[in-house]
Amino acid sequence: MKTQEAKIFIVALTIGTLLRFFAIGQRDFWFDEAFSYHIAQLPVKDLIAASLTDNNPPLYYLLLHYILKISDNEIALRLPSLILNIFAIYLIYSLFKTQINKKVATIAASLFSLSPLAIYTATEARPHGPAVIFTLLISMAFFMLIKKSNIKYSIIFIFLAIIGIFVHFYTLLLFLPFTFIVVFGKSRIKILRWLLILAIILLAISPWFFFSIQKSHSDCACPPTLLSLPASLVSPFIGGVGEVTIRIFPTLSLLVILLFGIVTLITSFLFLKGLAQNRVITLLYLMPLGALSFFGIFLPVFSPKAFSISSPFYFIIVALGIASFRKSGLITLLIGILLITINIIQLINPFFAGTRLKPLHNIVKENRSVTVAHTSLLTYYSLNYYSERNQKHILITQNPLSVQTLKFIGGEKQEVDPKSENLWLVDTQKWTEAKDRENALKIVFDAYYPEKTYKIDKITVILLKQK
Questions:
Q1: Which of 163, 300, 373, 404 is most buried as measured by Cβ atoms within 10 A of its Cβ?
Q2: Whole-structure pTM value
Q3: What is the DSSP string of 399-432?
Q4: β-sheet bridge partners, residue 423
């Protein structure tokens, strides 16, 4: 590693690590994380049964299950993502210094270290951050396998692949480019051996899929390809994925939008330039992206945040584009400064942080003896987590999660106890059917009148008194 590159990497790693530690407590424990908690706190047998009804496999929930034996603090629950994400920086460098060269590996690891998207997934109690490790480990094992096809590397690859799939289903997408490389690329592995490896992996995961498809699953809150595809290509450098980003973008200041625009144009150009530099890496990124984009037209399966597990390949492609210039160190430094600026802006003003849930909890906990009625699961599971079972929470609208999932984590639609003298109402229009919400509110306001009203973001909190 050249001295200049080493300095840039060390600075990027230090700043990236610090940003991750600052960001880990920046956002409130939102619905997805609260959902992870409610699955993870179940007994192991129920946890596995509940994850059969979910769209994510069980290994990440099992990890959280044992973290909960130490602490149920939201920071503790996010720590596995943080630690594994920091380790991924080293893996990016370690894997691609041998697969490509030290220069490209250093640039890519530096960019990942400072990536707002990587920092976000590193500070969320969801499987996307930890799954990056398995994307890299499986790829590392595959590269070893196609260079020297033997039983040892085959076993390593099979083991990592099975574990990776049970952490995150999107790792299955890697087998599209892997198979293409084996069949059409320079590989020492024979096709029959590759088919045998695939058969063993399929055999290992098939019982899980067999039992899983017999359960009803909640719909994925995945946007269509028209939104998911550009989000996947832009978010690694500016952060923000999903509907929160789409809703917030128009409200940002002109200077922030200009900064995002400049970074997007520069990095998109470098990405396009890097695509032609290494066919293998291009395949590893574009084939899964193409498959998700195609199926995302017809089915809600394309989650930009879930696809962030492939972001190391995105940064390698951009790094290849940067390395093709003579002033690659200067370009890396410039992009690094832009990324640090974006991260600092988002830490000061976390406009992609989503709903502020702790302030809602701080309001309703003033009267712990009073039941809290929610019109949306957006607030129901999170405030239930924050209350630590010291306050009763009910959902007064239909829960869109599958009935089989609700059997394990609760959240079925309930009626308000007519004997309750007081009631907290936490009302939001998000993630609930308009007619269902209107009917629920009518029933509540027929029996209660508002005594105190609070407004946080677009959520109304009302202390009600019986008429």
A1: 373
A2: 0.92
A3: --S-HHHHHHH---B----TT-SEEEEEE--TTS
A4: 464
